[in-house]
Structure formats: C-alpha cells, structure tokens
Specification:
Strand order of the largest sheet of chain B: 6-7-8-3-9-10
Largest sheet of chain B: 6 strands, mixed
Shape of chain A: globular
Order of helices and strands of chain A: EHHHHHHHHHHHHHE
Largest sheet of chain A: 2 strands, antiparallel
CATH class of the largest domain in chain B: Alpha Beta
Number of helices of chain B: 17
Largest interface: A-B, 31 and 41 residues
Structural class of chain B: alpha/beta
CATH architecture of the domain at 78-314 in chain A: Orthogonal Bundle
Number of helices of chain A: 13
Distance between the termini of chain A: 17 Å
Helix content of chain A: 55-70%
Strand content of chain A: under 5%
Shape of chain B: globular
Oligomer: heterodimer
CATH topology of the largest domain in chain B: Rossmann fold
CATH architecture of the largest domain in chain B: 3-Layer(aba) Sandwich
CATH topology of the domain at 78-314 in chain A: ABC transporter involved in vitamin B12 uptake, BtuC
C-alpha cells in the first residue's frame, strides 16, 4: 500500500451502516438506553445534593417495600397508560396527535358536567361520566381530524393549538360558573361518592387500574391481531401503497382519531374521577406530553406502554419524596423523563450504524 | 504490492463482496481503459450494481484491490470516490426537485462560498454545456424539467465535480429512442475527450451499438469481456442468462365481449402536470390493449384515473357486469376485479419496511381472507403465501417475515404480480411492468399478462418500451399529450407507431 493516496491515512471514528437488527437486539439496545438515561439522571441528582443511597431508597426500596407507595405508583400509572395508548393509536397511523392534553381537558369537563349536574340515576352515573368523557375527547379532536382529512392541514400544529384553547376554556369555567361555592377556590366542587371510581380493597388502589389494564388488553388485540391493526401497519409503512391497494386512508384516519380522542377523554376522566375527585386547573401536569413520550419509548406497543408507564409513575412518586425531603424541585422529574427519552432517541443511531475506530 | 498495468484507467482486481451468506461479487476482475465506453451486462442480481457500488465507495469490498491510473487506492465512501474523479449517475436521480439545476449542482461540489461563487459556477456550467452540446434551463426547478433534462443535470453534476470516470446506471430506462440517441452522442463525445464511461444496462442493442467493450456478469462472477460485434445476439444472451432465450409475439385467440369501455375521459391539470383529453377506448375480454407513448404523456394519470386514485373531471368508465363504475372508489373497483401494477413499485406497490408476507397478504386480508376482522392469521408460515412465492418464482426470500425492501427489482415485481393475481382479475392495468427488469424476469411478467389475458381478463398495458408493446398487444393505442392519437391492430408497423408517438 506504499503508493496509496492520502485519503487512506484518514483516521478516527467511522460510521458503517448495519444490517437490520433483530428484534431481540433492538430490545436490548432499548433497555440499555433507558438505563443510560436513568444513570445520567441519577448523576445529576447526586450532583444536586441527594446521596446515592437516598436515591436507591426513594426510587427502589421504598417503592417495593411500602404497600402505600406501591399503590401510589399504580394509581399514578393508570392515566399515563391511557394517555400512552391514546398516543400510540394515533401514531400507528402517522397521525401526530399532540393534543392529548386538550382532549383530556374536554373529557374531564364532560365527566364533571355529568357529576355536578347529577345527570341520570346514581348507579349508572360513573358509566355515564365514562362515556361522556370519551366523547368529550372525541369532540376536541374532530376539528383537527377534519382539517387534516379534507384540507391536509398539519395536525401537529392544529392539535397543539387546540390544547391552549381547551386550557383557557377550562380556566374560564373554574374561575366562573364552576368555581367551588363552598371554598371559593378555582376548582369544581368535589364529586359525590357515586361519582368517584370505587376502591379495589387494597390500599388506595381504585378502579382506574382495572380500566387501564382492560384498555391495554383491548388495544393489544387491536394492534397485534385484528384486521384493523393490520391495516394500520400497512398505512404506517406506506400510505401510498395503502391507497393503491384500496385501503380507505381517510376513513382509517378518521377512526384512529376518534379512538385516540376517546382514549384521551377517558384519561381525563381517570385523573378527575380516580385521583383528584374533582376538576382542578393544576392536575394537568403534562399527562398528554408524557403519553407521547411513553408511547415513543414503548414503540407504540401497549404492553411496552404499561411497563414504561410504571417506570414514569415511579419517577413521579419518587420525585415527590425528593421534593418533600430533599427540596429537589419537581421539574427534576420532567428532566429525568426528558433525559431518558433523549437517550432512547439517540440509541436509534446505534441501531442503524456501527462505529469503527481506526487509529 | 500488486503488479499494476499502467495502461488502465481503473483496475478492480479480485473483488469479493458478501452480504451475510450471499456472495454478491465473487472474485471479480474488471478493467476500464482511458476514454472507453464499457458496458456491464447481466441480469438483476448478477452483481452489476454491487460492483459499481464498490467502485463509487458505497460498499467496501471484503477482498480485492482497486487502482486508478496505476495507483492502488482505498475508497472509503462516496466523497473519496468523488475526490478520485469517479462520478455515478444513478437510475433514480439524486436531485432536490424544488431546487433549480444550478443549485443542485452547487450542492455536490465543495465551494468556499455559495453566493460569491454562484456566478463563477454558472459560467463553468454554461461552458461545459456548450462544450458537449447540452441544452438546459438552469433556473427552473428541476422537478419541472423532463426526465431527460433531469438526467442532464445529473451528468453535469458529475462533470462539474471533475469526474474522469462516469458510471451510468440504466441511463436510457427513462428515455425515448430519440432522446437515447442524443444521449449516446454525448457519451461518445465525452469518451473521445478522454472520459472513461461504465454503462450499466439491460439493453443489448445499445450496449452493442455504443460501447467499446462489453463485460458480462452472472451470479456475481465476471463471465467474459468481449468486443461488441464479435458475438451475435444469441451468443450474448447465452452469456448473460446461461441459456438461449427469446420472446415471440402471441396474439390473442379468444377475443370476447367488450369488458371495459372508457368514454370521453377528461382530466384537467395545471402547472405543467399532464392532463387527459377526450380519452376513448374499449378493451375486450381476452385482449391486451397496449398504450404506446413517450413517458409523461398521461400514462400515469390514465392508470390512476382508471383505478379511482385520481378524480376525473368528466367522462365515464363502464365495466361489463357492473355498469358504470365511474363513481366507484378504489376498493370498490378492486372488488369488481380491477388490479393494478403501478410503474413505481417501490413507492406505490410495496412497503419496503413490511415483510414479504404482509406485502403479499394485504390484498387477501382486505378481501376478508386469512382470518376474520377479529384475528388475522399468523402470516409468517402461511402455506398459501409460500405456494405463491414458489409459483411466481420469487427468489431471495429466506423467511416470509423478512422485509420486502431486501428483494431485488425483478423479485419485488414478481411479488407485486403474485399479490395482484392472487384473485382472478377481470381487468389488469399494468404500467411499465417490466421497467428495470432483466430479460428473464421481464419474460416472466409478460407470461403472466398473457396468462391473465387467456383467462379472459381485459389487460391494459401502458409502456414506454415500444418493443414490449409490440410484443404483447392485440390492439395498440398511442398516447400523446394526454390524448389517444392513433389506434392500430396488431401486427402493426413499428415505424408508424414510433412516428405517432412523437408527432
């Protein structure tokens, strides 16, 4: 190689495209990158003054050993799961529903309307709230869906902006006609017992976990084995091919947005009737965006969403303890979520390429 | 150190490249002389593209050495290749459609400043165009240029980047006979001024007519390098496919009733897009109606209008047994037995990231086969799919759940046809069904169309390849600027059809 030209001497790191990775290897990369994200997060927490042993205790020991904490995690996880499913169903058809939060608000508004006006007989009140919440969510996604299907308006923008309208409408209600008459605080009056999701009999665990698990099972079936799930796979892979083979793309997108909006509405219901027992302005602490991140981390897979939601819920519950006992701001929890997501997003790079070092 | 023949521009010696267990290139030695046009012939998957991808730095070979002008070089990527003066014009153009030609060329060369050197670059390009006799509008978006003009932009890209070795991958696949002639004039001129050209092609005729040497690859091995004219067609084909092989026309014997009647179709389009004007024709059962024409004269529009993918402005489509289907959606038309083989199979007929099984089964599943709405059957080991793959000679399928993107062009097309013919079609719409396929695969596609015809289907064949139209059609229509301008019964005169295409 004596006469090789100067480009042969180039040294350093090089990229090479990999063969497509097997499912098992992709899974390993995913797990490793989640752990990398956790590791970086913990380093940051340690730098901000929390000891390593405290982290271990707050995020692992106290969660697994305390029934109370464990049930808190499970309660916290339910709306995460449903928000994740709402994102997943839309993402599987490449409809980027960023408006989950707004749809949750309208779901909760619809449920609260039923609750404070005592619509229907008491035994069916919760069922009615459930259904109303779903359709409240659907109501809030129909406009972006229509704009997308008929006029090809980018749904990322329209669903995102609908969030702000929903939030301000909520404030209008809570500072106006729905303000709690007994306390004067800007939240709705508390739901009656018949309007709150019943306890399951173990700690404070309630029916929202059952709903979340049922929805996971239904969507797992829908995605993995139903004909509609197959159609979604085709549409996700190539909307051109879907159209050419006779799939009614607009109809599929309409169905998908309705399901996604419905699930978002249910998610709002789980927060108001399962955690807060009333409609408040502060309980939307980014569930919608967490749902998007969860679905992304879980690759739109319902079982994955269940697992990632438990992880996120653990971060939230552990984070609350850190807030109380170590004066760590709650924003740190969102920081951890973001770091994990960035690590997983970066791992895509290692799935596609291999690094070659030559020195 | 390897012994180097100073006479060659490029020597590729004992190049081996494997993908997993598959040996794409097996000990290939290929030499390219100064100022010669050297054709590479071979079937799909014979290794032509792999060899050229090695030369242009896209693949790194497992073994072997490359030397340019007598110096051993290592090509670690496309930028190295460019540095060494190797330029490749891909079959599918690498152009930014919304940029003009000037900006597209500016993108590929390393300039210190885009704005200050833009005028310089323009002069350079204009001078080059003058030198080789190109005519091109540098300022309109390349998306609005014709395919032939886009190809000129690609060629200018590599020339301006200073290439002394040009690799052309299937350059005439998208050109008319007339355009191809002009194209080769330019290629010959470039060769005479010292540029070495590698021409990857399927077309024997142009390889024989315009190249100085022909190398034939088969199954990853270089079979022989010959001087054109030393071998006749039959011997050359034998080198390529390993057996003698030629297709003969077979006219239909059982013309039936009118199957599909198209009356007064009109499609209005603006902004350079082709429309359709007063299209009238009918196809009988057991007839292949061929539509000849230069690409971009309304073929794609006609096919998508017939499938219900593009809404038409006026006119009617009547199908025997169903009446007027003008208002039917695509899925409804498919239920009536219309099937479609679109020209761009990678974009419209297949989803590369889905498995072979999914790509095949989508038609059956939409029809309601392979399970109910509750549960689609597991496709990975489905017997009916395996049988279809065997029946349609689809090679390169190791597992049903491998991605369809891994199939070569011919096998991908066979998969599309297997799917479209998985239920008995009543009307087949095939647009350039053998574009980019090798002789054997093209013959297979033709055989399938003939089988469908003999089974009583009405077949509409839209093709820019006049030989294909002449070979298969029972009736030939000529499309020109969105109108059917002439109609002939087979056998018809090639010259007259050719004239009707360009008048």
């Amino acid at each position: 190689m004596s006469s090789a030209s100067n480009i042969n001497k180039r040294k350093g790191v090089k990229l090479e495209v990999r063969d497509p990775m097997s499912f098992a290897n992709k899974f390993i990369v995913l797990i490793l990158s989640i752990f990398t994200g956790l590791f970086i997060s913990f380093v940051i927490l340690i730098l901000s003054g929390v000891s390593g042993s405290a982290l271990w205790k707050e995020f692992v020991v106290y969660i697994v050993t305390s029934e109370k904490n464990l049930s808190s995690v499970l309660i916290q996880a339910s709306p995460f799961v449903v928000a994740g499913l709402a994102a997943a169903v839309a993402f599987r058809a490449r409809f980027w529903n960023i408006g989950i939060e707004g749809q949750m608000i309208f779901g909760a508004i619809a449920a609260t309307y039923i609750a404070i006006n005592d619509v229907g007989p008491e035994p069916t009140r919760l069922l009615l709230m459930f259904i109303a919440a779903g359709f409240g969510g659907v109501f809030w996604i129909l406009l972006p869906a229509f704009l997308k299907i008929k006029l090809d308006v980018n749904e990322i923008i329209s669903t995102l902006l609908m969030n702000y309208i929903a939030f301000n409408f909520l404030l209008h209600l809570l500072y106006g006609s729905w303000r709690d008459p007994s306390t004067g605080f800007p939240n709705s009056e508390q739901y009656d017992v018949s309007e709150i999701l019943p306890l399951l009999g173990w700690q404070s665990l309630n029916f929202s976990s059952v709903i979340a698990v049922l929805l996971v099972i239904i969507l797992f079936w829908l995605f993995m084995s139903s004909r509609f799930g197959f159609v979604l796979n085709v549409l996700h892979a190539s909307s051109d091919m879907a159209r050419y083979t006779g799939i009614r793309v607009s109809l599929v997108i309409l169905i998908v947005t309705i399901v996604s909006g419905f699930l978002s509405g249910i998610c709002g219901f789980l927060v108001s009737a399962g955690i807060e027992s009333r409609m408040t302005q502060s309980f939307f602490i980014g569930f919608g965006f967490s749902g998007i991140l969860i679905s992304f981390l879980a690759r739109d897979n319902p079982i994955g969403i269940l697992v990632v939601s438990l992880l996120f819920a653990t971060l939230v519950i552990g984070g609350q303890s850190l807030q109380v006992f170590y004066q760590i701001p709650f924003a740190m929890v969102q920081l951890m979520q973001a770091i994990i997501v960035m690590c997983v997003a970066s791992s895509e790079f290692f799935i596609r390429y291999r690094l070659i070092f030559s020195f | 150190m390897v012994k180097i023949n100073q006479n060659y521009k490029i020597k590729m010696e004992k190049i081996t490249k494997s993908f997993g267990d598959f040996l794409a290139l097996d000990d290939v030695t290929f030499n390219l002389d100064h100022g010669e046009v050297h054709s590479l012939l071979g079937e799909n998957g014979a290794g032509k593209s792999s060899l050229m991808n090695v030369l242009s730095g896209i693949y790194a070979p497992d073994h072997g050495a490359i030397s340019i002008d007598g110096k051993v070089v290592k090509i670690n990527g496309p930028s190295d290749a460019r540095f060494l003066g190797i330029g490749m014009v891909h079959q599918h153009f690498r152009l930014v459609k919304s940029f003009n030609a000037l900006d597209n060329i500016a993108l590929t060369i390393n300039q210190t400043s885009y704005y200050s050197e833009k005028d310089n670059l323009r002069h350079k390009i204009l001078k080059k165009m003058d030198e080789i006799g190109f005519d091109l509008d540098l300022d309109s978006p390349v998306g609005l240029l014709s395919v032939a003009e886009q190809q000129r932009v690609e060629i200018l890209k590599v020339l301006i980047a200073g290439a002394s070795i040009i690799i052309l991958d299937e350059p005439t696949a998208v050109l008319t006979d007339e355009e191809a002639k002009g194209f080769f004039k330019i290629i010959r001129f470039l060769a005479s001024s010292g540029t070495s050209v590698v021409l990857v092609t399927h077309k024997l005729k142009e390889a024989k007519e315009f190249s100085d040497k022909i190398s034939v690859l088969r199954n990853g091995k270089l079979v022989d390098t010959i001087i054109p004219g030393k071998l006749d067609d039959e011997a050359l084909i034998k080198l390529i496919v390993g057996e003698v092989f030629a297709e003969k026309p077979q006219l239909s014997k059982n013309f039936g009733e009118e199957k599909i009647v198209i009356s007064d179709l009109n499609l209005h389009r603006s902004n350079h897009a082709m429309g359709l004007t007063n299209i009238n024709f009918k196809i009988h059962e057991g007839e292949i109606y061929g539509i000849a024409g230069v690409g971009g004269n309304g073929q794609a529009e006609l096919s998508t209008v017939l499938m219900g993918l593009t809404k038409l402005n006026s006119g009617s489509i009547k199908l025997a047994g169903y009446g007027d289907i003008t208002k039917f959606r695509t899925d409804q038309r498919r239920k009536c037995g219309l099937v479609f083989i679109p020209a761009d199979r990678q974009k419209y007929a297949l989803a590369g990231e889905l498995s072979v099984a999914d790509n095949y089964a989508v038609a059956s599943i939409l029809r309601g086969d392979l399970g109910s709405w509750m549960g689609v059957k597991k496709l990975g080991k489905q017997q009916s799919i395996l049988e279809a793959i065997a029946e349609f000679n689809i090679y390169g399928v190791q597992r049903l759940n491998q991605n369809a993107a891994l199939l070569s062009g011919g096998n991908a097309q066979k998969l599309v046809i297997a799917r479209e013919f998985s239920s008995k079609p009543s009307v087949v719409i095939a647009h350039s069904p053998s574009r980019g396929l090798d002789l054997k695969a093209a013959a297979f596609v033709h055989k399938q169309l003939l089988t469908a015809r003999d089974g009583g289907a009405a077949v509409l064949l839209l093709s820019e390849d006049l030989d294909e139209i002449m070979l298969l059609s029972d009736t030939i229509g000529v499309i020109n600027r969105g109108r059917i301008t002439a109609e002939f019964s087979s056998p018809a005169d090639r010259q007259i059809i050719g004239k009707a295409m360009v008048n």
